[in-house]
Amino acid sequence: MNKFKNFILDVDGVFTDGKFYYTENGKIMKRFGDADNDALSLLDNRMHIEMITGDKRGFQISKKRIQDDMGYPINLVSTFQRLDWIAERFNLDETIYMGDGIYDPIVFNSVGFSIAPANAFYNTKKYAKYVTNSKGGEGAVAEAVIYILKNFLNTEFDILKLNFEHGSGIWKKH
Hints:
This protein has one domain (6-89, 116-164): HAD superfamily/HAD-like (Rossmann fold, 3-Layer(aba) Sandwich), CATH 3.40.50. The chain is 28% helix and 20% strand. The protein has helices spanning 36-40, 59-69, 82-89, 104-108, 122-127, 140-152, and strands at residues 6-10, 21-23, 26-29, 48-53, 74-76, 95-98, 113-116, 130-131, 167-168, 171-172. Strands 5-4-1-6-7-8 form a 6-stranded parallel beta sheet. It has a two-stranded antiparallel ribbon with strand order 2-3. Strands 9-10 form a two-stranded antiparallel ribbon.
């Protein structure tokens, strides 16, 4: 039986390439990957999925993609408050956390399982239990989903055998 019930993901550097695009008017955009939403739909009925970001100035950009477009909850949580925030809401032993930042090892050290994208901060990758081959914004979340399916949900991922009877991602059949 799967002990993991929650998949909590940082947004910037995990769903995105981690770069912020600025003009003289401030932050204007973030670059998100294309495969991550469809992959997350494979976990929808199996785990609670929630996103967090510490990016106050870019929160509306992240919210547009994560909550409005993808349909997942997103919360603005300081990097220094993440562990407390997660512990107040979820059983840490039942939680998988995916992050890339310099302070994410603090969370990695306390959750049941930790994942970092290939382009995470070098020291952060040392603390992750799994490091993806893919970079943030380039399929790291999709790769993490496949890893979770195979290793914790006893589901062999074979794209040719997937059942799309109900659709996938935003392409849900009604």
